[in-house]
């Protein structure tokens, strides 16, 4: 049996769509999954019962439980005759142990990665040595991550594939169609320093766009009170609480543009979500998916550290006609159609040289 085990910190709605896509391509019941932890402090995901799924530890993802997780991982490999181990990177001690054990016990190791930052430091030299010795294949997020794996970590190009960062596009589809007349610029992001919402708000206030559009920020996090205070005198800026997965499509469908101003973002799945809903995109150059998903055909890229660059971007949006906005919406839908769970699953199986699966 060519059984597959896929491990993430915690499987949420995004990961479940990917797992189900793999299962749909393989006729027999050989796909297993596991959570590193039983809970987490950030996402608090709960996707219900999942077939062939294990929890390696009931402790939160943020807490160490190294020995128990490792023992349970080894037990799953043996009891279920796992041949392929697909693991969520190498950022935790547990994953390093999983990688080494999988390799020395004769399994094939595939790693997921969104990493693209950092230079040729001593740390990267150690990573390069370790990954080339113990990992076989890499499914990475996009252009930046692929270049990092190939040029910095020195992974052979034939062992790398993209994309890793995909969502269930159909879940976010706007059933009523894109409407440029909502005139709401949406930012869906955690309220924290690296998301750069304070500068985003200041840029919006100073831009021409603020005269006719509204800015809506949806999220939760440590800066929420600061953002509320910053916007208390502006009726055209809305601060909303974080929404559950099933409520997100409605929020996107009521918007006309999406913005992500992060100063650091490994990928940015919210951009996938917004594009799946047909929204044009404005994002900073620090958003990992920018080179892959955003172009002058469906949006704008600005400098996250330069408020004038952001203001200029918003001014350009204010000058767009309705037909231009609709054209950008269509381009978002066209681009994101290449980033689906089925394509993700097929690329994963191709990397594993997995035979006898149903091609997309």
Question: Can you describe this structure?
Answer:
- This protein has 360 residues and is an alpha/beta fold.
- The chain contains 14 helices and 13 strands.
- It has helices at residues 13-25, 66-79, 93-104, 122-134, 143-152, 169-172, 197-206, 224-230, 248-253, 269-276, 290-293, 307-318, 322-336, 341-351; strands spanning 3-8, 31-35, 53-55, 82-87, 108-113, 137-140, 160-161, 184-188, 214-219, 237-241, 257-260, 281-284, 299-302.
- α1 (13-25) crosses α14 (341-351), α2 runs parallel beside α3 and α7 (197-206) packs across α12 (307-318).
- It starts with a strand and ends in a 9-residue tail after the last helix.
Which features does this protein show?
single chain; about 350 residues; alpha/beta; 7-stranded parallel beta sheet; elongated
Shape: elongated
Strand order of the largest sheet: 3-2-1-4-5-6-7
Number of strand segments:
13
The main sheet comes to: 7 strands, parallel
Low-pLDDT parts are: none
Mean pLDDT over the residues: 94
Rg from Cα? 21 Å
Number of alpha- plus pi-helical segments: 14
Concise structural overview:
With 360 residues, the chain is of the alpha/beta class. The protein is built from 14 helices and 13 strands.
List the helices and strands and how they pair.
Blueprint lengths: L2 E6 L4 H13 L5 E5 L17 E3 L10 H14 L2 E6 L5 H12 L3 E6 L8 H13 L2 E4 L2 H10 L7 E2 L7 H4 L11 E5 L8 H10 L7 E6 L4 H7 L6 E5 L6 H6 L3 E4 L8 H8 L4 E4 L5 H4 L5 E4 L4 H12 L3 H15 L4 H11 L9
Parallel strand pairs: 1-2, 1-4, 2-3, 4-5, 5-6, 6-7, 8-9, 8-11, 9-10, 11-12, 12-13
Helix pairs in contact: 1-14, 2-3, 7-12
């Amino acid at each position: 049996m060519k059984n597959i085990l896929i491990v993430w910190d915690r499987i949420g709605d995004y990961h479940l769509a990917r797992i189900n896509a793999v299962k749909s391509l393989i006729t027999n019941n050989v796909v297993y999954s596991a959570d590193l932890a039983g809970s987490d402090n950030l996402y608090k995901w709960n996707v219900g019962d999942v077939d062939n799924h294990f929890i390696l530890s009931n402790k939160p993802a943020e807490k160490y439980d190294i020995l128990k997780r490792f023992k349970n991982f080894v037990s799953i490999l043996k009891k279920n005759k796992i041949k392929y181990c697909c693991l969520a990177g190498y950022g935790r001690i547990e994953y390093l142990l999983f990688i080494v054990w999988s390799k020395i016990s004769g399994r094939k190791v595939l790693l997921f990665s969104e990493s693209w930052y950092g230079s040729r430091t001593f740390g990267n030299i150690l990573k390069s040595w370790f990954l080339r010795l113990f990992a076989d294949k890499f499914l990475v997020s996009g252009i930046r991550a692929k270049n990092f794996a190939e040029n910095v970590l020195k992974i052979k190009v034939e062992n790398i594939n993209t994309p890793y960062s995909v969502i269930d596009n159909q879940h976010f589809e706007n059933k009523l169609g894109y409407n440029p007349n909502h005139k709401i610029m949406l930012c869906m992001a955690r309220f924290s320093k690296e998301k750069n919402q304070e500068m985003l708000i200041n840029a919006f206030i100073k831009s021409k766009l603020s005269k006719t559009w509204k800015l809506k920020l949806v999220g939760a996090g440590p800066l929420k009170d600061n953002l509320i205070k910053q916007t208390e005198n502006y009726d055209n800026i809305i601060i909303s609480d974080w929404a559950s997965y099933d409520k997100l499509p409605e929020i996107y469908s009521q918007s006309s543009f999406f913005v992500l101003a992060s100063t650091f973002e490994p990928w940015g799945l919210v951009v996938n979500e917004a594009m799946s809903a047909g929204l044009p995109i404005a994002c900073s150059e620090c958003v990992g998916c920018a080179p892959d998903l955003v172009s002058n055909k469906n949006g704008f890229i600005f400098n996250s550290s330069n408020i004038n660059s952001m203001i200029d971007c918003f001014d350009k949006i204010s000058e767009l006609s309705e037909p231009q906005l609709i054209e950008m919406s269509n381009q978002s839908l066209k681009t994101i159609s290449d980033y689906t769970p089925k394509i993700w699953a097929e690329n994963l199986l191709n990397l594993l040289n997995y035979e006898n699966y149903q091609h997309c």
